[in-house]
Amino acid sequence: MSAGRWGGWVGLVARLVLGVVLLVSGYLKVGSLESSAEAVRAFKILPFDLANLVGYVLPVLELAIGALLVLGLFTRLAAVAGSLLMVAFLIGIVSVWVRGISIDCGCFGGGGVVAPEDTNYLWDVVRDAGLLLCGVWLTIRPRTPASMDRWLFGAPTRH
Fold this sequence. Notes:
about 160 residues, mainly alpha, about 5% strand, Methylamine_util_MauE
């Protein structure tokens, strides 16, 4: 298998990992939008009303981006959106960590204030950085096997 083919398979794994994580995250939050808004407010970054709006919109956005990635549809656009989400999440987590605020990030539901010993910011940063790498890879190399993009728009031609 050529190096180019390996890249497609790496992209498939990156697409499915980022897509499934976003689907699970959105699914676990979409049934409790008030909890999602509370989790966003706990970061103490956005004004109250904007934090509420973000908390209500975020699960739906995660579901939409995750579905596009799993399907391999508009992969580059979905990867850029997923990458931007990961950057925002990383900024938020590092921000509360540096400011000494003890919260559960609410990444997979729940969220809000917790005891300092119940925080796990290092793991949250490592996880989201890995997911960001998946999104960056897909932004650069969006063509992957088993994608709707390939089915709808065809494989790239080689000269």
